[in-house]
What we know:
alpha/beta; seven-stranded mixed sheet
Amino acid sequence: MRTAGWLVLSAAIAAGLTVAASRAAEEPPAGPTTPPSEANAPAAVQPSTSTVPVTPKDAAPPPSVTIIGASDAHGVLGRDVRSAADEDMGRIVDIIVDRAGRVRAAVIDFGGFLGVGSRKIVVDWNAMRFGKIANKKDSITLELTKAQVAAAPEYKEDTPMVVLGASGSLQPLQAIQ
């Protein structure tokens, strides 16, 4: 935070020096510049050369900086997901956010073996617990059973999605006829 403050202060000082230098260049020098014998002669018309300091249009303010300790936050993409009964539930392959940018759900690649026969399902973000993540080998706990996740409909991008939550019971998707 102090570094950002020093950067802002340094930029303000540099801008002030630039303006002062440009104003000094515009002011005529003190005292006569022509010899006294030429004082009564008509003045030659010279084009005015005013220097205007060039500043970037709509200069962006410096970005804010936040430091997060390595033990305080971890990435979740590719992270293994396990049930409360320590069953393998798959791994997180995507995050779903709403239009306001809030994280709503995670897409889990579930089932199969080495990517063959697996399918993607969507689980509510609040159904996951991140308490024991200290390194990349640690998994995320999902508050659902393997049977509940297996019954969930498959997620397909750009189609309406069914989000599986931790509370309530999952009902199989009924085809409308």
